[in-house]
């Protein structure tokens, strides 16, 4: 039985290297099934853990919604933009570069543009075809680098496979890198005593949400599932800046469920629906689910629903606090993009 479970987990963790790009249809044959939909027999360890969970969990986890936090941040950003216009006669400018026809990318860009419009950020968007050349994309980015009315540049990721994401990101001016992905900003985030010009929006949103809900980070054991540049890696670095003891789990991690079970704070963004089940979680832990996975659902108006990496219906009975998906970290992430763009504009205009 132990060997079988190890094989099942290995199959799951081989998929943690990249975000999910397809719709999943997962069927669970029992209440305690694996993320692959395979029945997982309860071992003596699992039974003991179930008893411990049932005894300690009260089923009243706090739901950490990001919507009120996002609303507050946007209100503050809008007020600062009004002050900036009155003092300098200028408005923050954000340039968005979109390549290809991915529906999720188009949706995210639409949300970004809508949010900018609501707070007074001037936007410019360039949409390039799927077969766009690297030289053409670099020309677009370089033109925004030179434009003084543009204070922030965001290249919507992922890019088509024939384009080198790292090369493109390196061409974005560090002073306009509101996504925080440029090596200069990532490097400064990793080094004590240095400050990046911008912190990536998703990790920044994650920490903001934890702090606003009064979650103690200093000295706590934190597990970050996934090590992508966009979320996992930078979240680990930011948690360390807040003096947490951080373990980063990835596709080569052995016994990931055991490591996660020791964590006071669990953050996941790997693109695998319902990867984290109840028996991966320490009773009373805090969970930030940053996964946004489309799962086929014929009963839904759109034919699919969005779910996270954590099995919400199980986790809510074990943990002390958890983010919903959708409506958790997502709204705060976009608000942080607005905040970073405002900070860049203030820096460029000398407004304090």
Explain how this protein is built.
The chain is an alpha/beta fold and about 350 residues long. The chain has twelve helices and eleven strands. The strands form three sheets. The protein has a six-stranded parallel beta sheet. The protein has a three-stranded parallel beta sheet with strand order 3-2-4, sandwiched between helices. The longest helix is centred in the first third of the chain and has 22 residues, at about 65-90. The N and C termini lie far apart (about 60 Å). About 40% of the residues are buried.
Task: Provide a short characterization of the protein structure.
This protein is α/β, with parallel strands linked by helices. The chain has helices at 2-13, 44-56, 67-88, 103-119, 134-146, 165-171, 183-190, 201-212, 232-241, 256-261, 312-315, 330-349, and strands spanning 62-63, 93-99, 122-128, 152-155, 221-225, 245-249, 265-268, 286-289, 293-296, 304-307, 321-322.
What brief labels describe this structure?
disordered N terminus; single chain; alpha/beta; six-stranded parallel beta sheet; globular; three-stranded parallel beta sheet; 352 residues
How many helix segments?
12
Could you spell the SSE succession in H and E letters? HHEHEHEHEHHHEHEHEEEEHEH
Strand tally, please? 11
| Strand coverage percent | 5-15%
Identify the strand order in the major beta sheet: 1-11-8-7-5-6
Alpha-carbon distance between the two ends: 62 Å
Helix content: 40-55%
Q: So what's the overall shape?
A: globular
C-alpha Rg (nearest Å): 21 Å
pLDDT under 50 segments (min length 5)? 1-57
Helix- and strand-based class? Answer: alpha/beta
- On the 0 to 100 scale, the average pLDDT is 86
Main pleated-sheet profile: 6 strands, parallel
């Amino acid at each position: 039985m132990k060997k079988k479970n190890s094989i099942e987990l290995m199959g799951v963790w081989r998929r943690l290297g990249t975000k999910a790009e397809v719709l999943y249809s997962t069927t669970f044959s029992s209440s305690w099934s694996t993320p692959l939909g395979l029945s997982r027999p309860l071992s003596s360890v699992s039974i003991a853990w179930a008893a411990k969970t049932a005894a300690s969990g009260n089923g009243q986890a706090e739901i950490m919604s990001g919507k009120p936090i996002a609303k507050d941040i946007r209100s503050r950003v809008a007020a600062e933009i009004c002050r900036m216009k009155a003092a300098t006669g200028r408005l923050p400018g954000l340039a968005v570069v979109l390549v290809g026809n991915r529906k999720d990318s188009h949706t995210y860009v639409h949300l970004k543009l809508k949010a900018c419009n609501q707070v007074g950020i001037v936007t410019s968007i360039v949409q390039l075809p799927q077969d766009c050349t690297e030289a053409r994309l670099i020309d677009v980015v370089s033109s925004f680098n030179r434009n003084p009315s543009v204070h922030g540049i965001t290249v919507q990721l992922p890019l088509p496979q024939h384009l080198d994401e790292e090369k493109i990101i390196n061409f974005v001016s560090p002073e306009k890198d509101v996504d925080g992905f440029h090596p200069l900003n990532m490097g400064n985030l990793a080094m004590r005593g240095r400050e990046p010009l911008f912190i990536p929006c998703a990790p920044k949103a994650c920490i903001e949400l934890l702090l606003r809900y009064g979650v103690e980070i200093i000295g706590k054991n934190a597990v970050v599932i996934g090590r992508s540049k966009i979320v996992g890696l930078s979240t680990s670095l930011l948690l360390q800046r807040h003096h947490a003891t951080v373990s980063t789990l990835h596709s080569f991690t052995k016994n990931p469920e055991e490591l996660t079970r020791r964590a006071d704070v669990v953050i996941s963004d790997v693109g695998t629906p319902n990867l984290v089940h109840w028996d991966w979680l320490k009773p009373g832990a805090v969970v930030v689910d940053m996964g946004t996975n489309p799962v086929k659902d014929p009963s839904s108006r759109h034919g699919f629903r969005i779910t996270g990496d954590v099995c919400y219906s199980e986790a809510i009975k074990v943990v002390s606090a958890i983010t919903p998906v959708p409506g958790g970290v997502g709204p705060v992430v976009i608000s942080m993009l607005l905040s970073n763009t405002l900070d860049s504009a203030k820096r460029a205009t000398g407004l304090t």
